[in-house]
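Handout, page 2. Input:
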Amino acid sequence: MSMSDSDGAAEGVNAQKPAVRSFTRSCWGSGSAENVNPEEFHTFDGVESIVTRWGIWSNNGEKIVLNRDIGKAMTQVQRSLIAGGDDPQDRYRVEIGQNAPRKYRKPGCAQIPYHKDMLLSYEYFAANLRESNCIFESFKICNTHLPLSPYLSESLVPALEAAETLYTLELSNCLGPSDLKSVVAFLAKNQVLHSLNLSGHCFDEETAISLANAIRKHPVLYAIDLDSCSLGGGNTEVLNKILYASKECDSLVLGHPSFTSENVGLLARFIGKRIALTSLSLNNVWVNKDNQKLLSHALGKNKNISELSLRNCGLQLPKGVLNNNNLEGLSRLTILDLSNNSLPATGSKGIAKLLSNSASRLSSLNLSGNRLTSASAKVILPALKGNNTLLHLDLSNNSLGEPAVPSIIDMLQQNSTLRTLDIMGNSSLKIRSGGQYDYSSYYAGGGWSSLTRKPVVPRGKLEIERKALFDTTSLQSITSSNHTCEVMMTNANVGDSHAKTIGKINSLENEGLKVRLKVVLAINSANKELYNASSFSDLPLELFPMLLELVQQTVVNDTALKCNLGRTSLRRIFDLISGYNLQLLFERGSGLRKVKVTNLLPAKKKPKKKRRKFGDEDDPDDGTFTAPMGCGGYARMVYVYDPDLGRHVWKMPSPAKPTRKSARTNN
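Output:
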């Protein structure tokens, strides 16, 4: 979009609904000949995090281009704005920035910048919201710098105020100081919002106090997310007002490096009081030894919290939270996140005691980034053999090595309830090693033709796959493998490994489909010698058509079967038919044992029904039409996790429920 087109289209911004013509730019300066003006881009991360400077020392002068991934993200945001959200088919959710790339090549960039050429797209998006019926229940904008003030207060807030069914509002890492005041003013007038996410912002003291007053007076707000938010620069009085306002809520997320030890001590004393919170998260806050003891004592007194997150808090486990006196209190938890702390071998014993406790209700445990060693894994994993409540375990980004492989295999062979296991990011735990070129012969004068590769040696992850998840030594061993746990080991299949494919197969719900997919994968790729027509000679005749279909299928997209009539499948069909005992077909006959003989009488003619006309008094169809059951306006099935079944299922979203505060005030 050229500057002339931009100036000409800018005249229509104040219209009721701008035209869609030329709203997106195909290139945002990456690789172009013209320099990018960094002053035209707005981002909280700083302009230097989104641009690349070329030719600083050349005679032709410096060339500034926009980072390629940033440009792609900006284009994706514009397309979502024009379409009405990342998923335009869902009229009940409006999301911007959810599907944009999160990881950029340049460090320190966590927000998609804003450029003046994007204003038309934002105005078109706001106009669509105002003209719609405002029936959306969820509105989310994350990690995207919004246009400068007063865009939010004049364009988006009126649409949000008109939405009478807005239950979820997320504006994370996208607002400026003046926009935060507009959001707080909107919250003070709102009466229907249930969940509020304002993470990634810096509140001054005045705005934070206004936010606390709005939360305290709100009748049905029960989920508050203020993660990575500076609340008055660490002011204890401001945090006290926020905590007091949130004591009747169900979920609270806090955390910022500006939190002081006084703030953490205040939060610990708050947890020990009679509060309604069932979910608490404290992230990216340094907790000293004294506050760890206070926090441990408060968690032991609190009987309501079932979901706890203490991510990146500098905890030296098992001291404080995981001490022996607090294990009974932690057994009430269903979700525990202790990632990015320190968990030595002594701390792993506390985790093992928690998992082996028969009264434990823990279903999700995150120990990522805790510097766990193989010795720690040997203590934790055996405790899962008798555990039937834990569904998700995260051991990624630790220091697990080859000595931990036997413990992982043994646990997977005996545990049938664990659904996900993440062991990615353990650098010492590999799929294979070797395969590089050996240059010793070249340096000895042998030339390029003498180069050889080092032998490929299978390593621990491949052993986990072949012994616990996908044992292809026989058809029976495939059936006996673990089909319930999705083990996340790698982002792609490497060499002879099928780790990525097996993980996707185990994530499916149909148990029979998992086995069929693994059998087809084995006879086509992993172990082609496994196929033998004589192995199916004793198969019951009723299953023979299914066998013919199975041997000609291939695995596509890692989770689906597709028939492929090639030479291999045709040869297999011929081998099965020629080698099968077809005499069974004639011995058993058609399977018909008894025949009932009846007289074939002519069917009676039904009398013709009198043709009625519209308006007849005796016409029963003239009554008031009532829609049959199931006829609704729009299907809103959501894919959610069912703790009773232990897997994700499609179901209708739960109706809007009042919180404890609203129920008490109504009574």
